[in-house]
Amino acid sequence: MGAPKYQKIKQDLMEEIKDASVNTPIASERELAGRYNASRMTVRNAINELVEEGVLYRDKNKGTFVADQRLMKKNTSAETLNKPMDDTYDYNVIYFSSCFCDEKIAACLEIESEDWMIRIVRLNRKNGKPVSVEEIYLIQSLINDNDYNNLNKLLDLKGYIDEGSVTQKFLPIIVPVKYINLLHVKLNTPIIMVESTIVSKSGSPVVYIREFNNPTEKIIEITT
Amino acid sequence: MGAPKYQKIKQDLMEEIKDASVNTPIASERELAGRYNASRMTVRNAINELVEEGVLYRDKNKGTFVADQRLMKKNTSAETLNKPMDDTYDYNVIYFSSCFCDEKIAACLEIESEDWMIRIVRLNRKNGKPVSVEEIYLIQSLINDNDYNNLNKLLDLKGYIDEGSVTQKFLPIIVPVKYINLLHVKLNTPIIMVESTIVSKSGSPVVYIREFNNPTEKIIEITT
DNA sequence: AAGTGGTCTAGACCACACT
DNA sequence: GTGTGGTCTAGACCACTTA
């Protein structure tokens, strides 16, 4: 069968409110149930997800309203993990290799240092300006051969997140000299390095990312 | 009436799993429904909240399991906004005043610079070690007179969050000289300043916080 | 009084895992 | 075949707000 009914309702609602201004009420749950020939619980399921995502908010005894889109939930900072890139974003892969883990990376991925990993370094740009350098570490044994030859597939890590969770550490450092030219920042500039670990539902690490952020081009912002 | 039935179920489940190890299955939804003489939808409501909070995870066709507590969702970095402090935490209020807004703060709180605000500066400690300095800005007109004289109440901002959302910006800076001694860090240390704005459901700012974090005593970490 | 979201019931069918 | 979570129905009562 096709997608569940509540997903269809959710999509329709998102389409309906995409140009609506903040605090506009949406139709009541009972009315939507009638319109979609669905039960109220099904409509609530659709609305619940949109509330959870910060697209709508409820006000008891009053109704359900369009939330401030500026306050849309943003839970991660990493370019790699964000929504589909729009055309103001692009990137260059600077380095790609398959090699043994060094100890630090092995510890983060909970593998042995004699295990193979894939290391990708890329420079992310927005409007042509360098926003961050990402060092992405994957466990080689988890990658099948088809994906190995498809860089875009390798770098599309969003799929992993739906099935797991992300932990990010924010570390203040002085920009590493090797990235000064790439990021186009001055010597001794304080920057934030974000260490992200994606773990599967069962708790085993899948991907480890170090992201060196250019503070003049990117402000890390999170909304909950 | 008392609390809703699903909240009671949620509390019981939390109690039950608090010492359980990771990946332990909980009772099935149908069994819990029987045990609590509730419908399955009511049990699902309870479980949904725990899944949303990262306490449990579901595996389709298999069951519902205890999640890795290390991966419990942590959505904010600020001391002020975190769970009830345990006894390893304490703080000193260093500064408390009621004054006109300067322009920068007024802009963040979306009020006029001739409006009054309350400014609180405090030093947070864990195990006696300084973890952060927080500058907390409240809109005076939103505070009633009773609360004004109750510093603990003023600093208990968690209530606001349930009704609104938090946006945090992470800014890399060199530690301000005035906080070097308080934080016990060296001159020119790179640190992260977290700017938090709490806004109500309707989108108007309520509290603005600047937090200067000691990188040697506190690693900012977020799990989603 | 009418309408809203919050909670709740007692069923149902499905696809999928395991045995 | 049995059990699981995922989805869905067609009602219901409550507390509350608004007119």
TrEMBL record, chains A, B:
Sections of the chain in a coiled coil: none
Top-level taxon of origin: Bacteria
GO BP, one annotated term: negative regulation of DNA-templated transcription
Entries under SMART domains matching the protein: HTH_GNTR, UTRA
InterPro entries per UniProt: Bact_HTH_transcr_reg, Chorismate_lyase_/UTRA_dom_sf, Tscrpt_reg_HTH_GntR, UTRA, WH-like_DNA-bd_sf, WH_DNA-bd_sf
GO molecular function list: DNA binding; DNA-binding transcription factor activity
Keywords: DNA-binding, Transcription, Transcription regulation
UniProt entry tagged with the keyword Protein transport: no
Keyword Transcription recorded: yes
Pfam families: GntR, UTRA
HTH gntR-type domain sequence ranges: 3-69
Listed PANTHER family: MANNOSYL-D-GLYCERATE TRANSPORT/METABOLISM SYSTEM REPRESSOR MNGR-RELATED, MANNOSYL-D-GLYCERATE TRANSPORT_METABOLISM SYSTEM REPRESSOR MNGR-RELATED
Protein known as: GntR family transcriptional regulator
Source species of the chain: Lacrimispora celerecrescens
